[in-house]
Amino acid sequence: MIPELGHFALILALCLSCCLAVLPMVGVQQQRASLMMLGGALSSGVFIFCALSYAALTWSFMVDDFSVSYVAANSNSALPAHFKFSAVWGAHEGSFLLWTLIMAGWTFAVACLSRSLTLVMRARVLAVMGFLTVGFLLFMLLTSNPFTRSLPVPPQEGADLNPLLQDVGLIVHPPMLYMGYVGLSVPFAFAIAALLGGRLDSAWARWSRPWTNAAWAFLTIGITLGSFWAYYELGWGGWWFWDAVENASFMPWLVATALIHSLAATEKRGVFKSWTVLLAIAAFSFSLLGAFLVRSGVLTSVHTFAVDPERGVFILGFMTLVVGGSLLLYALRAGRTHTVVAFDYLSRETLLLINNVLLVVATLAILLGTIYPLIYEALMGGAKLSVGPPYFNAVFVPLAMLLLVAMAISPGSQWRSGSVGRLLRRQWLYVPLSLVVSTAVLSGYETFSMGTAIALVLAVWVLFNLIEDLWRHIANKRDKLRAIFAQSPSWYGMWIAHLGIAVAVVGVAMTEAFSEERDVRMEAGDVVSVAGYDFRFDGVRLAEGPNYVADRGAVFVTRNGTPVVTMFPEKRRYLARGNVMTEAALHGSILRDLYVALGEPVGDSAWAVRVHVKPMVRWIWFGGLLITVGGLITLADRRYRHRLRREAVVGAELAT
Amino acid sequence: MKFGPMKPHRRQRLMVVGLIVLCSSAAVMLAMMALEENVNLFYSPNEIVKGEAPVDTMIRAGGMVLEGSVVRSETDLTVDFVIGDLVAAEVPVRYTGILPDLFREGQGVVARGRLTPEGVFVADEVLAKHDENYMPPEVADVIARAHENETPAGESGGQ
């Protein structure tokens, strides 16, 4: 009964979202405030019914209702409760229900927090989001209903959740990522609404900014968690594989990053308006493209869900409609928003422009590499190829380094005007200093890599400039400590996010250059030395978990004879499906990670053992965390709310 | 010269456009070069047996791991196995390292590596799939095509 209610709630949500997509727009057309006002109530309705439906599916998981095919395929009565809860988004249907719920949630949030928008703008924004919700709900009801029953003979026991997904990282990673993906629909809706109204002004940019920052922050933490999860759960010890699905999340992130910067210029100076709109459209389009790549199965990836052409065709059609429609609207309307605002070559505007060009070019290069196998297959009549990580490194790393250069000198830039002198103020000091610091760091290692050296110098250089920027903000204040805390959240957010980038770059550079890795065959008592650590393999024992049995290895680690830690990597066999999973053992610290994973038994008592020592690898995710925090801090800026009110009043007067 | 000084915003726009064009064309060039070097073509066991695959070039090969073909070394982590299309073609593969969890006989795998002149495929990487029911599309394709060819011709060297 409960699953049927969930299904029914979905249908109701679809009806309401159809109304949401149409009625407020009709209201705008006919200038009827009563219809425009419906947006708020309808958004709440859609959200409530999506939430009910989601709750129904969660309920089916919690009570082990294996007559629901989706539950039977992804759960098991022995599965721990928290994993039953997260198993809801463990496969295609449920994860798309979560996606839709989050879409409804963002719409609801916009409805609640945008009372200060003009009536017309609010009606349009909500209608656009309603339209997107219609598409997602239709997709689910037509091609991937999670509530389908397997009657009349339901299975007695479920097939269990894929063991890779039985992990705490996976409880949080997809919801965060989806918050980001779907959150990009908000700036998209604002852009479409602004185009429809023909008014692209700084008020529009100010409305979009906090939403964009929020979505971007969620996307950042989602990607960071995904990377961390891949690192400790896949058992390969890598943190980024340039896998098609990783790229699918990275491309919208890059475009959204460009959007954040371009929105700043549009809000502050009224420049790049139509470009900003285009970025807002592009960011969400890349989100949809990501959904398509993951859910259609057109690309080979560790992440892709089961192949179903029907789904791919639906998403492709919806994507064509959304992207094509918005680009058409853009072509018709954006030309009208022509403005002339002059700025110097060496101004902040130019730096932001460089940032944008680099980010967009990087995105397109990654896009090319990601879909090249598809293009090739189509052109060459079925011949298959894959594009390896070296391609992505070759195109992305140089662009990223140029971005770092722009970022390093950006704190010294000014809006509108600038001079070489101002821009390069103290760089004569910072550049050599960064060289010295980097050389000092690198001198501790025997190998040398040019790429790492450059990246390190750039990161340290960025750091010096950030510190100077902080100093400049408090230098002429009497109470310096208090001044540190009195800066605006916007500025702080920027500062912390940029710091996060520098930290992540240091992590990437050090890990890539100085990681040491050995795959060895070890008998109990064997010792292998990696990067100054001695790993002694003490054999394996049988261990039992709630729904698996494991071979539990013990590895005793010493350094120069001093004990460091004993690590317990596991090889688990999950009972329901009988599949085998590697559970790596980690010992992390700020400066290095020790990583031990069991391969397979080879011979009588010997095991294949994978041992890594990865310097500063945690900095990558710590950097990601800082970037996220930076993005969230900007939301606290009171400026958005105060000015919103004032302009809303003016806007309302204009509208009537 | 009758042209006056260019209007500032015009000149600015020109600069912007120039910058974008310059950057993008450089990037496209870099990307194409990088693509040229880092693309791995896929070959089926049948194509490799027929000698259509280049020797000592990074390629990918895929097929089913034949039952009973996996042989482990006694001293290190080298594994030998045979991949085939279940009809005629078989290619010996050698890999040194840790195999993915889902690697086993009778499963479809895709490997990346180089073909030696003796016809042994030396793999650098054996791709992992995280779902035991998931068949790499390349391998599914290989087997489908092999079965199509089998009916009319019936090539030699079958199992």
Say what oligomer this is.
Answer: heterodimer
Total strands of chain A: the figure is 11
Report low-confidence residues of chain A grouped into runs of 5 or more.
Answer: 648-656
- Rg from alpha-carbon coordinates of chain A: 27 Å
**Element string of chain B (H = helix, E = strand):** HEHEEEEEEH
Biggest β-sheet of chain A: count, sense, barrel? 6 strands, antiparallel
CATH superfamily caption of the largest domain in chain B: Nucleic acid-binding proteins
Strand content of chain B: 25-35%
Structural class of chain B: alpha+beta
Q: Mean pLDDT of chain A, rounded to whole units?
A: 89
Q: What is the overall number of helices of chain A?
A: 21
In terms of structural class, how would the helical and strand content of chain A be classed? alpha+beta
Alpha-carbon distance between the two ends of chain B: 84 Å
Any descriptors?
heterodimer, A: 656 residues, alpha+beta, six-stranded antiparallel beta sheet, four-stranded antiparallel beta sheet, 21 helices, globular, B: 159 residues, OB fold (Dihydrolipoamide Acetyltransferase, E2P), five-stranded mixed β-barrel
Short note summarizing the structure:
The complex is a heterodimer of chains A (656) and B (159). Chain A has 656 residues and is of the alpha+beta class.
Explain the layout of strands and helices.
The complex is a heterodimer of chains A (656) and B (159).
Chain A: H1 2-30, H2 33-62, H3 69-74, H4 81-87, H5 92-113, H6 119-143, H7 168-183, H8 185-197, H9 202-233, H10 244-269, H11 273-296, H12 309-333, H13 348-379, E1 385-387, H14 389-409, H15 420-424, H16 427-442, H17 450-474, H18 480-485, H19 489-514, E2 516-522, E3 527-530, E4 533-544, E5 548-559, E6 562-567, E7 570-574, E8 580-583, E9 585-588, E10 592-602, E11 606-615, H20 618-633, H21 638-655
Chain B: H1 8-37, E1 39-43, H2 45-49, E2 59-65, E3 71-72, E4 78-84, E5 90-96, E6 108-115, E7 121-126, H3 137-150
Parallel strand pairs in B: 1-2, 5-7
Antiparallel strand pairs in B: 2-4, 2-6, 3-4, 4-5, 6-7
